[in-house]
Amino acid sequence: MTHDLLRLATAGSVDDGKSTLVGRLLYDTKSVLADQLDAVERVSRDRGLDGADLALLTDGLRAEREQGITIDVAYRYFSTATRSYVLADTPGHVQYTRNMVTGASTAELALILVDARHGVVEQTRRHLAVTGLLGVRHVAVAVNKMDLVDWDRSRFEEIVAEVGVLASRFDIDDLVAVPLSALLGDNVVERSANTPWYDGPTLLEHLESVPVGTEPAEQPLRFPVQVVIRPQSGEDRDYRGYAGRIAAGVIRVGDEVVVLPAGRTTTVAGIDLGQADGSVRGIDEAFAPLSVTLRLADDIDISRGDVIAEPERRGHVSRTVAGTVCVLSDKPVRPRDRVLLRAGTRTVRAMVEEIVDLLDIDTVEYRRAPQQLALNDIGRIRVRLADDLPIDDYHELRRTGAFLLIDDADGATLAAGMADAPDRYAGADI
């Protein structure tokens, strides 16, 4: 039986019961240590509760426990017989949208909570927008607190219909909704007798069955060079290798490759893989996400930040990047700001050329932007670069289509971005 890994991120508005749901998953999959459970039960008794408050398993920060909210991204780990999970537990408050961007950036599935009493709210729309823009492949909607609406089937279907319309606006095509009660455990791990009208999977059944990973052979090769290895003395002084992590695709000894942005072609002479004991072993092929060192047939000029790719599917090299950004800093992003743009291992000087528009979360429509994007704003911009940059369409290759905008003065991260296809660069509208 295959034991694979699913990375997922949770999101929900305040008081939707997200921490309780995560705690329930940990508890029901027996991923809680005995002393942790004892501590939770003790605190719950001190608060006058009849049973264990499972939210305490996840709200680990003192400020969170005092306020009863989640304010930071926390990573939880649990497993079942067939799959391991890395769960990014992200905040619900609007001012922590940037934390959700961080948590969802590497996720394959987003678990979005909706309170059955309140239905779709602004944060639901925001979370669906971020999920779609980040290219998260799968979305599970947990319609929580169904016990507080008497397990009303029509209420569940009403929420699912509204979520479905929003999901389609952000190109989310794999969406599963589950009616549940995180507090009582209904339809989380065990199927509930309270929903005879629901014939879908429990939440855990869905998490166990959703497809994970991408077949490396289906994607074009992308190998951002992180370190150039060239010993200055000793027996290996003639060695020249290029170390990094394969972002996408497969590479084999003998393959022809192109080095971007220069466009020089060569062939792969060897692939070296580091071993646990510090030694190096030569291998015939490697695939994402392995970290390896490549040896090339020709001694050409390659430095950190260059990308080794397939000649036939080499991607784009441009001095303009357009795409969607989420502002992560208190300092706003404005036109004509001088910044650094970092994509993969390459950093280039740049200038914000234009703020094209701003995503209005209430209407889920883009509108003409003001003269800046502030903290947690999501908008589309165009950036002019001082040098050539290899970059992909984010929705085709997430790892090599993502970028950061960095303050040129103090090195602080201003925004996280997702590059669009280059055929949108020329026109006035993205």
Defining traits:
six-stranded mixed sheet, disordered C terminus, Elongation Factor Tu (Ef-tu), domain 3, 23 strands, 35% strand, alpha+beta, 430 residues, Rossmann fold, 8 helices
Question: What would a concise description of this structure say?
Answer:
The chain is built from 8 helices and 23 strands. The chain is of the alpha+beta class and 430 residues long.
Question: Could you please describe the fold and organization of this structure?
Answer:
The protein has helices spanning 18-28, 34-46, 62-67, 97-104, 122-133, 153-169, 203-209, 398-401, and strands at 4-12, 74-79, 83-89, 109-115, 138-144, 175-179, 222-224, 227-229, 241-245, 250-252, 256-260, 264-274, 280-283, 285-287, 291-296, 307-309, 316-327, 338-343, 346-360, 365-368, 378-391, 402-407, 413-419. The chain contains 8 helices and 23 strands. With 430 residues, the chain is of the alpha+beta class. Helix content is 18%, strand content 35%. The protein has 3 domains: 4-213, P-loop containing nucleotide triphosphate hydrolases (Rossmann fold), CATH 3.40.50; 217-309, Beta Barrel (Elongation Factor Tu (Ef-tu), domain 3), CATH 2.40.30.10; 316-424, Elongation Factor Tu (Ef-tu), domain 3 (Beta Barrel). Helix 4 runs parallel beside helix 5 (122-133). Strand 18 (338-343) and strand 19 form a beta hairpin. Strands 7, 8, 9, 11, 12, 13, 15 and 16 form an 8-stranded antiparallel sheet that branches. Strands 2-3-1-4-5-6 form a 6-stranded mixed sheet, with helices on both faces. Strands 17-21-19-18-22-23 form a 6-stranded antiparallel β-barrel. The radius of gyration is 24 Å and the shape is globular.
